[in-house]
Fold each of these.
Amino acid sequence: MNVLLLGSGGREHTLAWKIAQSSLLSHLYIAPGNAGTLEKGTNLPLSVNDFQGIKEAVLSHCIGMVVVGPEDPLVNGIHDFFLADQELHNIPVIGPTRKGAMLEGSKDFAKQFMLRHAIPTAAYKTFTLTSLPAGIEFLTSLRPPYVLKADGLAAGKGVIICSTLEEAKKEFTALLQESKFGSASQKVVVEAFLSGIELSMFILTDGKNYIILPEAKDYKKIREGDQGPNTGGMGSISPVSFADPVFIKKVEERIIQPTMKGLLSEGIDYQGFLFFGLMNVQGNPYVIEYNCRMGDPETESVIPRIQNDILKLFRAVAHRCLEEETLIVDPRSTATVMLVSDGYPGTYEKGKIITGEDQVESSLIFHAGTVSLQDPKSIVTNGGRVIAVTSYGATMKEALTTSYRNAKKISFEGKTLRRDIGFDL
Ligand code: AMP
Ligand code: GLY
């Protein structure tokens, strides 16, 4: 089978690495991909939101399955586009339809969904420009810190946490009055702050059955000690020490099962990955957010721990027989360290030559923002997050030591990393 994978980050290079090992694969295409995915298949110069271009590629390359990495095309309805097209409707898409992707695409929808299905989450209210005064009143009734969330997709920047009421009122007003995130902030969710330690859990589902993937923890802040602005993620580890069987059971019973039941009862057909961003509040899990895809950089530490042939799992999703598959998990720990461009998550330069990948031993290298140049032949930086270094170890510490040792060997001007991944565990 020929497979088309959509996306261009570290998550997609990891998925490409895994799909390339499948006995079911004939040829892998990646759109648009990066310098890393190029080693695993053929990159196609197509935007993930160019549905017509994707259709043409699927037909001309006889693609038998489409795997969607990022949320954007899912929220924009790529799965629905395939279902509605005579020539495409039999080609499985791994990723939910638009309605399912709304769990990520609209925070207000996600909160209402959780409320309807009694899924533990922070108390909240949603406001628009017309209800701005009521929002200010609601903020005044809360205790700091204040959590404000743009309703729609805002490239990971839509959550603002304010330590004072004054700042919260100012940000809240800016979100609604100045459309800080365009149409994404036409609605703003104001929610109670949850105090605890975060982790990410994932399922792969065929709409009815699901398998729970290994959990992970990502490190979002740019600076050590979880300081500074949020990034897409500076590193990740799997497993997570506090996610013991008792905690995982609570997540399954209180969150995963009611979510699946809710999707079924509301007629939302969900095939693909579902990501639960969780807060462990004194041993009890709460949902901070849903994502309709795998996490990045969680994928870089989770997927290497899965020993199954991933296309067999995807095929079972497409045929709705996931109950026939058993997940096989590598008992070792994995640790991912992200190398990013100086200035990220603010402005940064691109086009810096990357060297040293050939010196790496005993780690997996997953490219994120990289591009391969022909003349002269080189690989250069092309984004904020540049390269993920993932290693296995008998313990988290051992995996981290190997990742840091190899992270040193990769060089590019402005290379920045956090040296304290896993510090809180
Ligand atoms: P998100 O973009 O939804 O992943 O949110 C970004 C980060 O904001 C999360 O990873 C949490 O650290 C934090 N956050 C979001 N909602 C809450 C909440 N209700 N309480 C505490 N922290 C939160
Ligand atoms: N690492 C968090 C995310 O992928 O949203």
Amino acid sequence: MADADRIRTVADYVARSKRRGDDVVVVVSAMGKTTDDLVRLAGDVSATIPPREMDMLLTAGERISVSLLCMALADLGVAAESFTGSQAGIITDTDHTKAKIVEIKPDRIKSCLAAGVVPVIAGFQGVSTERNVTTLGRGGSDTTAVAIAASLGATVCEIYTDVSGVFTADPRVVPSARKIPRISFDEMLELSASGGRVLALRSVEFARNYGVTLHVRSSFTWEPGTWVVEEEETMEQAVVSAISHDASEVKLTLLKVPDRPGVAAHIFRVIADAGVNIDMIVQNTSIEGHTDISFTAPKLDLELARRVTEDVARQVGASEVISDTTIGRVSLIGAGMRSHPGVTATMFETLANHNINIEMISTSAIRISCVIRVEQLETAVQALHEAFSL
Ligand code: ASP
Ligand code: MG
């Protein structure tokens, strides 16, 4: 909903869905770059930015959207009422700027629906168990939508975005990338966790846990997009379904860590307690009782991660902490990998043929990720897309 025109277009679409006879609940996100602008403004005003105040600030963006959309709906003769996250009964924990939903009390939304009125809910926000306004982390409107859909037992949660679905790779990097008609929750989860920017990770977790069918589609063309469903319901049984890439992480390495039981436990406990979400971890073989440990973390958490890691390095007697901000991660995702050996070898061969050095590797049953130099990321994605004939 970038501008007034778009808001009227969305209102028109909602009005048509409603007239078709569907009960609809709408969750909206902030207009255009509003959230980014508010984040910037906070930075211009303050060096400390208390998280509680950041949340109060950011929720304003979605409030603007819900009220304007309801006004546009009123002009079309559709009865609609706006709700903040708090009014919609979205109760979260107290972790400001990345709160988790703990409960939804949708009674106001249900009575609104029962009265034939369209509830329009501000995405990305809730109220904490301590009654403060919270936000769910960037991209959190998806999570709001899925959570509301789950709590109402909706048939489908349609997520309208600026792309027409989930693609076999980012079409800006691989122009021949295809739209995937159906993908499983697990694959979508791995995609979102490894740099796929289409859906917020939390929203996919929620959808999988509560079995909410998702339909990711474009709010520009309204054409059918990608369905995210249970694995049995996916039609394509490709070995590799998609290739994702992520340049938003940094690598931190602790050098010469004493190799004793309990040291890694201590390091990662301290880092976790500081709220840093770490991802890949690699530990070297021990040489003379010492080892190196590297891990990746979001770039956004770099300052915090570095501070905490340096503290903990001193505590355990590691010699030094190095941070590397020029890494990129490329991942292959596919449920078919479980039963097809050789995918890893083909991936490594493809990277080798393009002279790409692999710095870290991590795998799950349906994903293989490699950390490489960030400047080789696009080449890697293109080469793998071709090697696996996506
Ligand atoms: N407005 C929030 C953000 O930009 C939430 C969202 O877009 O889903 O992150
Ligand atoms: Mg957004």
Amino acid sequence: MVNKLEKKTLESWLENVKEYACEGKVADYIPALAEQNPEHLAVAIYPLKGECIYAGHSEKCFTLQSISKVISLALALIDNGEDFVFGRVGMEPSGDPFHSIYRLEQHTPSKPLNPMINAGALVVSNMIYGVNAHERVGRLLSFIHEMTDDHSIQVNENVADSEFNSAFLNRSLLYYLKQHDVIKGDVEETLDVYTKQCSVDVNVCQLARIGAVFANEGRDIHSNRQIIPRHYARICKTFMVTCGMYDASGSFAIKVGIPAKSGVSGGVMASLNQFGGIAVYGPALDEKGNSVVGLKLLEILSNRYDLSIF
Ligand code: GLU
């Protein structure tokens, strides 16, 4: 079965799907992301028991982008508790593009619909404890180090600067939220935290291990130590199902059926209870913002091993 999955099988699947990369386009609204090579493709599976298996450009680092929203949500829940967090951000899918602003005007108070769209994720970043951006980002990095047992993971400052200097829409969202008292403190500081959390650099094995922690009910997969309370890990995975794949989350649930979150760098992190974490990297994106190759690979994997949770 799936535990017997071998590196050469992953390699042959990657070989089969690589032709689809030309159907997508690398994100360029963050200038540094445009430098990514659409031919860099990688996949990793981190089972709850056993070693990580991987194929492709598995050493290649890419930034978390929106995948970080799952991690920051877990930390904000730990810091503030569920009532506080969901007093400021909703639980419903939006069906809108991730950076859409117009729904904020349709609700009073201006509560973003969920933590996976930018407006909601910015509110979540604003809730992470710390006296300044440096401390907040440091806590988020420590949290990632704990999940991966890998202290080498850092912020890609080049991507962070590139996004910070071009984040006019996210600035607009933040100023709107500040005006309506949904976020506290300094807007530019929150944007600094958000752009840095989005710019954390990982490879597929590191990302698959984070996915495995969520799959393992919030526990470290080797020591079994509880890093994220089980209930919060479950909340995060539920958001991955309902809004993890932008406004293609419905079709992804039908075709693949695994909780997953994608980012505009072309990364996807998937988490399957009792199985483990899966990560895919392929920077060419479809029109919704999901990795073209990532979607194909996850579909193959899910169908081949009947992994859908539904
Ligand atoms: N940092 C990106 C932004 O806010 C994340 C978007 C994404 O990956 O969906 O635009």
